[in-house]
Design goal:
Blueprint (H helix, E strand, L loop, with lengths): L1 H31 L4 H24 L8 H29 L4 H24 L5
Helix pairs in contact: 1-2, 1-4, 2-3, 3-4
Length: about 130
């Protein structure tokens, strides 16, 4: 159980750094360059995804022994595209239907997507202990 909590802690740190990167890029695109929030959300999430993959597989998850790196990345990318879809859907619902400020919605959405990401990556990418 201790190992799981340590892993969750590392995941939160990596995820937090990824979110900061995502949020800064999103903010710069929307507030400084006037990019439409959905477009900005797509680009900021995608850039932070690459950072997250590199850090997650280095510090958080132990790669499966029988999984080649390009397959691992393909799985990670697929799960992340699903996460991106969830991210954009939540952002759209919160901003357009619930009237929540887009920056607040971005923070709330990050929490939802973080849980999704941890669970799916743990299931599909991590080596099971014997």
């Amino acid at each position: 159980m201790k190992k799981l909590f340590e892993q969750i802690f590392k995941f939160v740190i990596v995820g937090g750094l990824s979110f900061v990167l995502d949020f800064i890029i999103y903010y710069v695109l929307t507030k400084l360059f006037g990019v439409y929030y959905i477009t900005a959300g797509f680009f900021s999430f995608t850039i932070s995804l690459i950072f997250n993959y590199l850090m997650s597989m280095k510090f958080v998850f132990k790669s499966k022994d029988n999984l080649k790196k390009h397959h691992e990345f393909a799985i990670f990318a697929t799960l992340s595209v699903m996460g991106l879809g969830l991210n954009l859907l939540c952002l759209f619902i919160m901003v357009d239907y619930m009237g929540i400020n887009d920056l607040i919605a971005k923070v709330l959405t990050a929490g939802i997507v973080m849980v999704f990401n941890f669970v799916t990556r743990k299931i599909f990418l991590e080596q099971k202990e014997n």
